[in-house]
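Let's practice the habit of predicting before peeking. Look at the sequence and jot down your guess about where helices and strands might fall. Then scroll down.
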Amino acid sequence: MSTNLSKIFVARLIGLDVFDPLGDRLGRLRDLVVLLRPGGRDQSMARPIVVGLVVEVLGKKRVFVPMTRVTSIDADQIICTGLVNLRRFEQRGAETLAVGELFDRTVVLLDGSGTATVEDMAMQQVGNRGDWQITQLFVRRSSSAGGLIRRRGETLIVDWEDTDDPSNAGHQPATQWISQHEEDQAADIADELRGMPEKRMLEIAAELQDERLADVLEELPEEHQVFILTNLGNERAVTLLEEMDPDDAADLLNELPPEDAEKFITMMEPEDAEDVRRLRTYEEGTAGSLMTPVPIVLSPEATVAEALAHIRQEEIIPAAASAVLVCRPPLETPTGKYLGFVHTQRLLRYPPPEAIGNLIDRSIEPVSDMASLEEVARELASYDLTILPIVNDADRLVGAVTIDDVLDALLPDDWRTYDDGTPIRKVGKRYE
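Done guessing? Here is the structure:
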């Protein structure tokens, strides 16, 4: 490997473009993967080995590039060779992320001067094999000790072995990790959590705000949803279930033992519990099991202005905001008689005082709550819809199915895992 730098500080590399030998851009460096080793008589042997890069490729997917494939590192770019496995990166138990887990953690300085916070680290090629090792830490002093006068906030560079066994120190604070990912979509956070050890996943989940965590849970595979929900305590679990869309909450509760599901439902607010109980009565694969019981429902006397105000609500997902469903009172599901719906696009063509009862599209028949998934998908596809009203046998609106609900049901269970469905554990040696 060629490099113009004898010692490289990791923070300066993050965000650099990664190229193949032909000059085609592979992606952008997001982190380094290191293996921590216990200390020993030869302290240089206890330094972490850098085994690979985490590169963000097209579609914000993160993949693993072994250090053995890296041919050049400089201040502007990183060049790698050979074929890169584009399966999504998933952190293994012995691996640690340099930025994601080592930055911002506290270490003890062995000179007796107190503790310090890791802000950066340096890596160098060491030994006959040319392994990359973390050799030094750039730290900011956080306390003083031993009666010595030290400046709080002073920065210094220390050798890895001059800290108190950093390999046994705790993870980067979960709050710091969350602040670094505050702009990410819920699906991107879910992808990150999926690749973490369970302990770290739970640390992050515990610090996420309720609304944010509820959105993330809806994007996680069922086994991870159950793990997080059942390890955060009953009160937090109930709060999350109330924050989730009722159909997603019902699906999650269906994965729990019946006695646990009933316990959580009993603890929920009566209105939320009623929606979830009703959804759980439907057989899996029916329109009733897929629907949300809280679409936008208005009376025919409501105005265009009122309808658009409901559509603008931040919590309404785009698919559900594509139409307003019109019914006779009561307007909570199950409603009075279902009359039809008004597309958002049609609302935009009429003045604010216009009554939506004059704009109703009656050409699309609602679907029974007992209809199959195939019937619902066919109806959505036939009429280019993103939302479909669902009624019971009394012609009362009981909910609506959106296109994302149908896609989730039609895609294979492991669609969130890898593009080709192959578990990453079946890939060969990772670092070669």
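How did you do? The longest helix spans residues 270-280.
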